[in-house]
Amino acid sequence: MFHRDYILRLIQEFSIFLARLAGLKDRNDPEVVFLELERSFRQFLGYDSPLLESLGPEGALGVLSAADGGDPDRLAMAAILFREKGANFSNYGDESAAARCQEFSDRFREAIGHRTLSPEIRKLLHGSSDDLPSPG
Hints:
The protein is mainly α and 136 residues long. The chain has one domain (2-131). It has six helices and no strands. It is globular, with a radius of gyration of 14 Å.
């Protein structure tokens, strides 16, 4: 029960973060978006994205799965964060970095497989970055 309440609260905070991120994207300042994304990796995953990236998709998956066997909601958050980081790299003109982030996102989505996700996180995972909640 406690774990489920914690996950629900985390998902609510994550939804608020994504709404704020959408507002930042509207301001068309990729550097601010990058800073917010970097902060969110630590907040929601407990690790900085450069550390996860240095491990490669499989290593990052192993680290994120070590404590809880790969909680599907947490893996979905990782997939979304890497998807958003990749979209920001793409907007910034760095297609190589965007593709690398997409590799991570795809690997986390693959690891989720057919496991049950919270309905809220499922909507966020299957939406595009254009479908993020609106700020406010």
